Amino acid sequence: xxxxxxxxxxxxxxxxxxxxxxxxxxxxxxxxxxxxxxxxxxxxxxxxxxxxxxxxxxxxxxxxxxxxxxxxxxxxxxxxxxxxxxxxxxxxxxxxxxxxxxxxxxxxxxxxxxxxxxxxxxxxxxxxxxxxxxxxxxxxxxxxxxxxxxxxxxxxxxxxxxxxxxxxxxxxxxxxxxxxxxxxxxxxxxxxxxxxxxxxxxxxxxxxxxxxxxxxxxxxxxxxxxxxxxxxxxxxxxxxxxxxxxxxxxxxxxxxxxxxxxxxxxxxxxxxxxxxxxxxxxxxxxxxxxxxxxxxxxxxxxxxxxxxxxxxxxxxxxxxxxxxxxxxxxxxxxxxxxxxxxxxxxxxxxxxxxxxxxxxxxxxxxxxxxxxxxxxxxxxxxxxxxxxxxxxxxxxxxxxxxxxxxxxxxxxxxxxxxxxxxxxxxxxxxxxxxxxxxxxxxxxxxxxxxxxxxxxxxxxxxxxxxxxxxxxxxxxxxxxxxxxxxxxxxxxxxxxxxxxxxxxxxxxxxxxxxxxxxxxxxxxxxxxxxxxxxxxxxxxxxxxxxxxxxxxxxxxxxxxxxxxxxxxxxxxxxxxxxxxxxxxxxxxxxxxxxxxxxxxxxxxxxxxxxxxxxxxxxxxxxxxxxxxxxxxxxxxxxxxxxxxxxxxxxxxxxxx
Amino acid sequence: xxxxxxxxxxxxxxxxxxxxxxxxxxxxxxxxxxxxxxxxxxxxxxxxxxxxxxxxxxxxxxxxxxxxxxxxxxxxxxxxxxxxxxxxxxxxxxxxxxxxxxxxxxxxxxxxxxxxxxxxxxxxxxxxxxxxxxxxxxxxxxxxxxxxxxxxxxxxxxxxxxxxxxxxxxxxxxxxxxxxxxxxxxxxxxxxxxxxxxxxxxxxxxxxxxxxxxxxxxxxxxxxxxxxxxxxxxxxxxxxxxxxxxxxxxxxxxxxxxxxxxxxxxxxxxxxxxxx
Lengths: 656, 276
Prior knowledge:
Chain A is of the alpha/beta class and about 650 residues long. Chain A contains 19 helices and 36 strands.
């Protein structure tokens, strides 16, 4: 005989104002099988939980329904309370009478009516709930960090410094990411490379960190605590164990006019190269597409130069299979290509550049050794126009969101320009100055007040070339008049966008992404560093545009999550997994294909002599995530999901 | 030599040589226009085989009879292109091994019976692709178009009337080569998702569930339609679903024995027109 306890929460005014909880409690008290039906202002509070526990003990309840907020919010709270009172936690269910009931209705009678339906339906479900025991799985204490920018390095170092193993994978030949390309960093103007490169070296030399550069993730299988990851080690054509990093091959390489990716096309590199002088590891790669030997079959000058015999033109891609317990995704961002603004002339006029290119000019390791010079003739620009939001906050041509860092780096650019070109004039067209952050607003005020940047609130409509100048026509909306500036250089504060292959990569590792390709966190406020896939965490700009302090903070946060996971020998997993009725299974294998987690295998049923009688599907509870896709696919209804069995769902529907 | 005679000779050869253990074909029926399935395992019986334009039943469903193929011996079967597609689906869904099937392929164009030359299931891909190209037409184009033009409300009442005739005999299921489940969902009673009594709701539930279970799998052989004792135009539902999966996923059921089921597989280039 069922003895169900129904606990109706007012959630303060949230539910109480729109649902007549007294009436609801009385109605549920009348429902067959309900032993206790009570209301309270906040059941999630300590006295609230205590009263639930007391009711369980006093009445020997066989099931509990808490009519309250979303189960996402407090299901675990109340299940824990039930467990403490000796009731199997899976006999507790939440009837959500807040989100889709009290919050969305204005008529109290109708909302109360609906709350009764929702609660009754859950009571009917709970009557058919089974006691479930959590599944325990072992944890592999080794983290994989994908991406060797500042976020990835920080996460790797934090995990490694706590004594756990880390594999740090970077697809470029060197660690560093975008931060290595920057000149000075806001709001303190410390040199980016000076703070970045020691971090890179520390990560590379850390005994607990295994560094795999020029490597890409091929596939990810498994689940939290037990991922199997295959990494493709792209062929460098340079033996990493023999090379000493002397650089002779780079000096001698005859293919010298290849546009440098690191310098954003402003400098040149050779076909055998390291992206920049401080690369970690300091081991070059051969760019196959531009190598004279690979193109014509003749050259091999690097090979002849090398005293260590490290060059191997026959090198092939190899694969590494890793056993991993947790994954930190720190794959970073890209800058948008500004050619979509035909009116700004990016790509047409050489002196219209983007913010990252300006960073390279301002950087001591850049193509001009830190001098601000215009690309067209190498002259020092006397007037520079910066255009903010060149792509961001522009739903028609660019992206809808704010790229977050551009206000700050444009202020920084204006400062650096003022420091490097005395008497130069910086004009900045802006929409708003978004300088929220420690020391940020002070920083942007400094650009205006000390370094005399002229801020013009308005947009630029057109840039064209006239008499060797770039004519910039815009509007100053504060003065309400059009502006025309004859500039020597124009810098576009380009939008941050997701990596071009971000969506593909999300599918490889099985995490969600938004419409722009940024990775989705499990909860924007309460679980901002977890992805929706257990055991996969997000750090840095792959989740949303971020500056360095935010990226580092988020990276450290992921490290704490990984370390918490690694603090246990065994993981407890929700026992919400699918099971198959082998007697009725028709063996069509639709479920095997439908399962997104590869959790369903084929199983042979054999007779005593070992002869196969039939083949059926078999669910691996360690891999099953309880999504229920297989259940909906199964035509013979052989598959069922524990905690959401067909009987429970049917009762729930019929209870409405 | 007529095709009928050719196939009798070949059946005799295969049976007497032991290449196949059984031939499933057609024999004379209760009247001149009807044919009934024939199962012969002796070369002496081949003269009972009949092949003419009245041979319309899809015989592929008999191949999944419990235990028939478990001795790994071969079975020959008379099949029209729809039947060959059905074999492909059954093979794709692991219900049989296509290697075990010897096909006596034929097609009826107008009133004329034509032989399909090859004998192995995988050799028919050209034939199947050509059917896909000419897109199967509904048996009653006119009625089909009339239903297409109806408003959802009219269409609902049309089907309500048709389904009101259903007596839940499940003849459609028994005749269908795709309905091979050992336990059908309608026979599952914990919980009883589909109402067993033949009132409107239960009838709707059954026919809609069947339509969904056949979408992307039905080859439009017409077995269900002909089996229905109360003449519900089931062919129209199946045709609509086939058009739907062809349009939405470019999926034509039964093109190969490795074809993935449309509702369980995912193609990156699906047009996804139905996702808003």
